């Protein structure tokens, strides 16, 4: 049994199954522009851990990363980062309490730094192929 999540109008349903690889805050320019937000909460799953079970979607990108989106209400459901076998689910759609962030990434692009106890990576952590460099905040 997975977790069901919905877009904001309810037309599209997704099923999340298995364990997420990580829950993170992404501060990259692509997420900022696609969501009109300073940063985005992302739940990374292996590609086969995320299935559309109902509704119509479209895929579009602003800068580079394709975003699978509800065809009716425009809610961003998940992103498919080029070159990674990952679907990055929009964690704002998950049930309360499910999002358990473990790091901040792409902090070099941050426009609204969040100071907390998590690691703040300049780009990406080594765990997903980055350099592990951190920023000062
Ligand atoms: Zn919708
Ligand atoms: Zn991002």
Provide an overview of this structure:
- The chain has 137 residues and is mainly β.
- The chain has a single domain, classed as glutathione-dependent formaldehyde- activating enzyme (gfa), CATH 3.90.1590.10.
- It is 5% helix and 33% strand.
- It contains one helix and ten strands, in the order E-E-E-H-E-E-E-E-E-E-E.
- The longest helix is centred in the N-terminal third of the chain and has 7 residues, at 29-35.
- The chain binds zinc ion (2 copies).
- Residues 7-9, 11-12, 70, 72-73, 75 line the site of one zinc ion (ZN).
List keywords for this structure.
mainly beta; glutathione-dependent formaldehyde- activating enzyme (gfa); 3-stranded antiparallel sheet; 1 helix; globular
Number of strands: 10
CATH architecture annotation name: Alpha-Beta Complex
Going across the biggest sheet, name each strand in turn.
6-7-8-9-4-3-10
Bound molecules: zinc ion
Structural class comes to mainly beta
- What's the helical proportion of residues? under 10%
């Amino acid at each position: 049994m997975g977790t069901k999540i919905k877009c904001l109008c309810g037309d599209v349903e997704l099923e999340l199954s298995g364990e997420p690889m990580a829950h993170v805050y992404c501060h990259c320019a692509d997420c900022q522009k696609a969501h009109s937000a300073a940063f985005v909460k992302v739940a990374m799953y292996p590609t086969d851990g995320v299935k559309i079970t109902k509704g119509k979607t479209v895929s579009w990108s602003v800068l580079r990363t394709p975003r699978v989106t509800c065809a009716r209400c425009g809610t961003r459901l998940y992103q498919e980062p080029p070159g990674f076998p990952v679907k990055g689910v929009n964690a704002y759609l998950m049930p309360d309490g499910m999002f358990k962030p473990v790091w901040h990434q792409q902090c070099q692009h941050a426009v609204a730094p969040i100071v907390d106890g998590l690691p703040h990576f300049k780009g990406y952590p080594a765990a997903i192929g980055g350099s592990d460099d951190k920023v000062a905040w």
